[in-house]
């Protein structure tokens, strides 16, 4: 199983798909916006996710849902830093979900052990240079533009080939900036600059992305394409009722040996991965 270098020892030694628990300390994220605005509530939720099987807590202070607008750097810092500090004191492996170098710097100083940049270094020209100075993993996602316009950026000749090619080019940009290739994990960006139907070929043909030889993080949890799949009487399934579908994807990703899945409901995906892992290790 491919892993990025720079992981904490306890994660490096896990020979299975890791579970990254989503912690949005935002008022407007598509699934759980507003639920964890209070730092104490957010911290307790993160600790519960660890108990439920999360290996990493991914903390984000800026919503990247379709149509969302940017917030100030200070607002993002004010949201994430109290939670990171509290969790780092508890020994939790923390990923900072940000596109801003100032936030990444402060988060790493507070105890984050990896940077998850949904723009893959395209949003902030200083990000890649800063990450090059670290020894932590860097998660580079496929990204064509900010959330308020990404739904207009869905023109592909071949979505699988194009996404893979665009990720490959950005990985080379990151390497040229000084980030060791072995520290990079990639994320195909399910739901980002992709129509509902364009997500399915990426999941079906992951072998194409795997040819890049890099660890893969899959973030499909509760996304719109699952709600559209599970439509009933013309009404898409709402985000809180997409967990069974999310767990199915986590199961498939674990069976493929992907590095990690990023999910809201940790317990269901963790249990599914445990089953896959047990079967795989049975003589």
H-E string: HEHEHEHEHEHEHHEHHEH
Average pLDDT, all residues: 95
Q: Which regions are unreliable across 5 or more consecutive residues at pLDDT < 50?
A: none
From the helix content, strand content and strand pairing, which structural class follows? alpha/beta
Rg, Cα atoms, Å: 17 Å
End-to-end distance = 18 Å
Helix content: 40-55%
Q: Any idea what the shape is?
A: globular
Percent strand: 5-15%
Main sheet: strands, sense, barrel: 8 strands, parallel
Give me the side-by-side strand order of the main sheet.
Answer: 6-5-4-3-2-1-8-7
Q: How is this fold's topology laid out?
A:
Blueprint: H1 9-12, E1 18-24, H2 39-51, E2 56-60, H3 73-88, E3 94-97, H4 101-110, E4 114-117, H5 127-132, E5 138-141, H6 159-176, E6 184-187, H7 196-204, H8 206-210, E7 217-218, H9 224-229, H10 243-256, E8 260-263, H11 266-280
Parallel strand pairs: 1-2, 1-8, 2-3, 3-4, 4-5, 5-6, 7-8
Helix pairs in contact: 2-3, 3-4, 10-11
Task: Provide a descriptive summary of the structure in words.
With 283 residues, this protein is an alpha/beta fold. Helix content is 41%, strand content 12%. An eight-stranded parallel β-sheet has the order 6-5-4-3-2-1-8-7. It starts with 8 loop residues before the first helix and ends with a helix.
Features:
8 strands, alpha/beta, 283 residues, globular, eight-stranded parallel beta sheet, single chain, 11 helices
Q: Quick recap of the structure?
A:
The protein is α/β, with parallel strands linked by helices and 283 residues long.
């Amino acid at each position: 199983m491919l892993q990025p270098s720079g992981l904490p020892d306890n994660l490096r030694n896990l020979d299975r798909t890791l579970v990254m628990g989503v912690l949005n300390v935002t008022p407007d994220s598509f699934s759980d916006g507003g639920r964890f605005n209070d730092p104490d509530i957010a911290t307790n939720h993160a600790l519960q996710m660890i108990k439920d099987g999360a290996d990493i807590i991914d903390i984000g202070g800026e919503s990247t849902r379709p149509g969302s607008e940017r917030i100030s750097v200070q607002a993002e810092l004010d949201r994430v830093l109290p939670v990171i500090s509290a969790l780092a004191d508890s020994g939790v492996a923390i990923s900072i979900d940000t596109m801003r170098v100032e936030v990444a710097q402060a988060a790493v100083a507070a105890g984050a052990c990896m940077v998850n940049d949904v723009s893959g270094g395209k949003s902030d020209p200083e990000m890649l240079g800063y990450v090059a100075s670290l020894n932590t993993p860097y998660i580079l996602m496929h990204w064509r533009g900010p959330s308020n316009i990404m739904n207009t950026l869905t023109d592909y000749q071949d979505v699988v080939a194009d996404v893979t090619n665009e990720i490959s080019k950005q990985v080379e940009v990151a390497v040229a900036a000084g980030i060791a290739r072995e520290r990079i994990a990639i994320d195909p960006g399910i739901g980002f600059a992709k129509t509902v139907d364009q997500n399915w070929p990426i999941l079906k043909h992951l072998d194409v992305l795997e040819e890049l030889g890099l660890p893969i993080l899959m973030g499909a949890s509760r996304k719109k394409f699952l709600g559209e799949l599970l439509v009933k009487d013309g009404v898409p399934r709402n985000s809180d009722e997409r967990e069974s579908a999310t767990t199915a994807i986590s199961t498939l990703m674990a069976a493929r040996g992907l590095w990690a899945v990023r999910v809201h409901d940790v317990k269901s995906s963790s249990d599914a991965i445990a089953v896959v892992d047990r079967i795989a290790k049975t003589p």
